[in-house]
Amino acid sequence: MSSQEKGVWIELTVAVAIYATYAVIVLGQVTHSSWATVAYVPLMLGAVAASVVATVVIRTVVAAISPKDAGKRDIRDRQIYRFGEYAGRWAVIAGALGGLVLATLRIEPFWIANEIYVAFFISAVVAGIAKLIGYRRGVPAW
Amino acid sequence: MVKPTRVTNSIRSMRAEHGDLTQAELADRIGVTRQTVIAIEQGKYSPTLEMAFQIAQVFGVSIDDVFHYPASAGE
Q: Does the pTM exceed 0.80?
């Protein structure tokens, strides 16, 4: 497995683990009190920061364990990266449009923030899966 | 759905003919990862034209000695 493919696995795993943790904590608070009183902002910012830090740390550790191919990236990796980002882009667009609609309807910021956050999460998962398909089954021809 | 490439190649046999050149050695000579050479050999990845020329140059042959494309129906 190339270092870039390992990187995709790490990003995908971290994204799922961190979002699942965030969702469990927020939903746990919602069941004990009203969603309007949930302190989601520090949790959300913490989850975003934890995603970045965890991805960097794990990638660094994996690169130290197998330094031979670490950081090596060729044209196939770049094509797969582009394909994955293209596949996941619709979720970001849908999330932005959804946020816009919710804001115009004067919905509580809790819902707008979480709708946009879940869109970023879906985008990351779709992009990650598309990249893994690119590595395992081949880069699709347009 | 991923559309399989119709390009086939003789890289595996050419590596054997050239002193059992390994996938890693070929990858180093054309500046890609070993996984890319494996993907090309297995027909999971169509190399760029430039990469195809580089591979042909390593074996000292022309590009159509390494890569093959089936004639379309009616030809």
A: yes
